[in-house]
Amino acid sequence: MARHKQEQALSEEKGPQAEEDGEAAGAKGLQGAEPGFQPPEGGFGWIVVFAATWCNGSIFGIQNSFGILYVMLQGDLGDGEKDRTLEFKTALVGALAMGMIFFCSPIVSIFTDRIGCRTTAASGAAIAFIGLLSSSFTKSLEVRYFTYGILFGCGSSFAFQPSLVILGHYFKRRLGLANGIVAGGSCLFSMSLPFFLKTIGSTIGLAHTFQVLSAFMFIQILLSLTFRPILPPSCDSHHDRQDKLGSRSMKQQCWSQMRKYFNMRVFQRKTYRIWAFGIATAVLGYFVPYVHLVKYVEEEFKENKKEWVLLVCLGATSGLGRLVSGRIGDCIPGLKKIFLQVASFMLLGLMCMMIPQCQAFEGVIVVCLFLGLCDGFFITIMAPIAFELVGPMQASQAIGYLLGLMAIPMTAGPPIAGYLHNYFGNYYLAFYLAGVPPIIGGLVLSVVPLIHQRMLKKQQMDSGKDKMLVLDTVINGELLPGCPSTEAHV
């Protein structure tokens, strides 16, 4: 215990974030599994980075290119579906898929922590493969709600989240750089897939396009096998847990099991609650341009036949933003990283409102360049901020619950925009309103570092008591998230 207190005192010198958010707990957790463990900061980790890059790229490349599939889906319906809710129904296919990625995330966190990153990611990629492949055998929107929206969306969630968690096993000092490479490299898919889909879509049709896309997920099944956790399970904690459970009542045992699988400790942190609420608010308008921008350009600039260029621009600057923000995030200490998200959300909201103001196609291209840059900064910084807020032991749960909170607003945004288009006959009001939630969310996020600093000042008034509070509340296990683990013994 004395040795642990010394290590905690040393960790406090590294930065204020370690005092509140679990640096000491992370040190103790790593001690329980393997004394003196330090991530390798490379080696086999770069292979894991490549696999995670393919995972992120194939999933979000397809999702971000849905504007092309959106137009193809409407053309595939023929003349039999000409009701006033067509925009709403078609947008719901892509919105469901994106929403399910985030809606399933709390459950994915449980699977990731209990059975490991490798099994979870490979199973999810297999489900996503089945969803895309089966989408090619139907023309019904209702069936595609299930095959593309549910199966592909859920499978993508199970494949995507472990690719974020596993990076923490191989990188610590370079974690921001690793996330930036993964996020930036994956944008190569977002840049190339719109042109690829536009070319093959007009040649082989929608059904065969889904089959081609399913091949990306088949490759991901194989690459997911590289998600090997570094730390083995701790043996003695299992016996200790059995002794503890044997002395408890049935009600206590049931409650203990529920807490093991649904760890809600992250919500005890005020800073995490505000951060999660701000992001959930902001993403209500986040996915609207990806779904409706291609259709909007077709209506406003009928003579232009290169609307796919917009999605390429989104992907290109998003990749640049992810690479740059990853490196910048490593240089910004503690929760000050959140200000990158604040700036990106504020600018994203402003750019959404600027879309109807563009009088020429070139103006929309400029807006898309900024939209992609905002997307890159927001996505890359998300995982490092989660590690800062709750510490490494609870990072998987924190990311999972955050993505789950994002599910409903992200799913609702595009269909609402489609409904507004059907009602007013244009996308003007839809894009104006889509810019409001990111601005509000950015304002909410800006108060998180201020609240954090206030909490630190209170801690400094009674440092001894607050050190004990950190020890009592932060510890969440003896392994890094994503290792098949047992109940921690504290």
From TrEMBL:
<dbReference type="GO" id="GO:0015192">
    <property type="term" value="F:L-phenylalanine transmembrane transporter activity"/>
</dbReference>
<keyword id="KW-1133">Transmembrane helix</keyword>
<feature type="transmembrane region" description="Helical">
    <location>
        <begin position="175"/>
        <end position="197"/>
    </location>
</feature>
<dbReference type="GO" id="GO:0005302">
    <property type="term" value="F:L-tyrosine transmembrane transporter activity"/>
</dbReference>
<dbReference type="GO" id="GO:0015196">
    <property type="term" value="F:L-tryptophan transmembrane transporter activity"/>
</dbReference>
<keyword id="KW-0812">Transmembrane</keyword>
<feature type="transmembrane region" description="Helical">
    <location>
        <begin position="209"/>
        <end position="231"/>
    </location>
</feature>
<feature type="transmembrane region" description="Helical">
    <location>
        <begin position="427"/>
        <end position="451"/>
    </location>
</feature>
<feature type="transmembrane region" description="Helical">
    <location>
        <begin position="91"/>
        <end position="108"/>
    </location>
</feature>
<dbReference type="Pfam" id="PF07690">
    <property type="entry name" value="MFS_1"/>
</dbReference>
<dbReference type="InterPro" id="IPR050327">
    <property type="entry name" value="Proton-linked_MCT"/>
</dbReference>
<keyword id="KW-1003">Cell membrane</keyword>
<comment type="similarity">
    <text>Belongs to the major facilitator superfamily. Monocarboxylate porter (TC 2.A.1.13) family.</text>
</comment>
<feature type="transmembrane region" description="Helical">
    <location>
        <begin position="338"/>
        <end position="357"/>
    </location>
</feature>
<feature type="transmembrane region" description="Helical">
    <location>
        <begin position="399"/>
        <end position="421"/>
    </location>
</feature>
<dbReference type="InterPro" id="IPR011701">
    <property type="entry name" value="MFS"/>
</dbReference>
<dbReference type="GO" id="GO:0016323">
    <property type="term" value="C:basolateral plasma membrane"/>
</dbReference>
<feature type="transmembrane region" description="Helical">
    <location>
        <begin position="44"/>
        <end position="71"/>
    </location>
</feature>
<dbReference type="GO" id="GO:2000178">
    <property type="term" value="P:negative regulation of neural precursor cell proliferation"/>
</dbReference>
<dbReference type="GO" id="GO:0150104">
    <property type="term" value="P:transport across blood-brain barrier"/>
</dbReference>
<feature type="compositionally biased region" description="Basic and acidic residues">
    <location>
        <begin position="1"/>
        <end position="17"/>
    </location>
</feature>
<dbReference type="InterPro" id="IPR036259">
    <property type="entry name" value="MFS_trans_sf"/>
</dbReference>
<feature type="transmembrane region" description="Helical">
    <location>
        <begin position="145"/>
        <end position="168"/>
    </location>
</feature>
<comment type="function">
    <text>Sodium- and proton-independent thyroid hormones and aromatic acids transporter. Mediates both uptake and efflux of 3,5,3'-triiodothyronine (T3) and 3,5,3',5'-tetraiodothyronine (T4) with high affinity, suggesting a role in the homeostasis of thyroid hormone levels. Plays an important role in homeostasis of aromatic amino acids.</text>
</comment>
<dbReference type="GO" id="GO:0006520">
    <property type="term" value="P:amino acid metabolic process"/>
</dbReference>
<dbReference type="GO" id="GO:0015349">
    <property type="term" value="F:thyroid hormone transmembrane transporter activity"/>
</dbReference>
<dbReference type="GO" id="GO:0016324">
    <property type="term" value="C:apical plasma membrane"/>
</dbReference>
<dbReference type="GO" id="GO:0042403">
    <property type="term" value="P:thyroid hormone metabolic process"/>
</dbReference>
<feature type="transmembrane region" description="Helical">
    <location>
        <begin position="308"/>
        <end position="326"/>
    </location>
</feature>
<feature type="transmembrane region" description="Helical">
    <location>
        <begin position="363"/>
        <end position="387"/>
    </location>
</feature>
<dbReference type="GO" id="GO:0042802">
    <property type="term" value="F:identical protein binding"/>
</dbReference>
<feature type="region of interest" description="Disordered">
    <location>
        <begin position="1"/>
        <end position="33"/>
    </location>
</feature>
<feature type="compositionally biased region" description="Low complexity">
    <location>
        <begin position="24"/>
        <end position="33"/>
    </location>
</feature>
<protein>
    <recommendedName>
        <fullName>Monocarboxylate transporter 10</fullName>
    </recommendedName>
</protein>
<keyword id="KW-0472">Membrane</keyword>
<dbReference type="GO" id="GO:0089718">
    <property type="term" value="P:amino acid import across plasma membrane"/>
</dbReference>
<feature type="transmembrane region" description="Helical">
    <location>
        <begin position="272"/>
        <end position="288"/>
    </location>
</feature>
<feature type="transmembrane region" description="Helical">
    <location>
        <begin position="115"/>
        <end position="133"/>
    </location>
</feature>
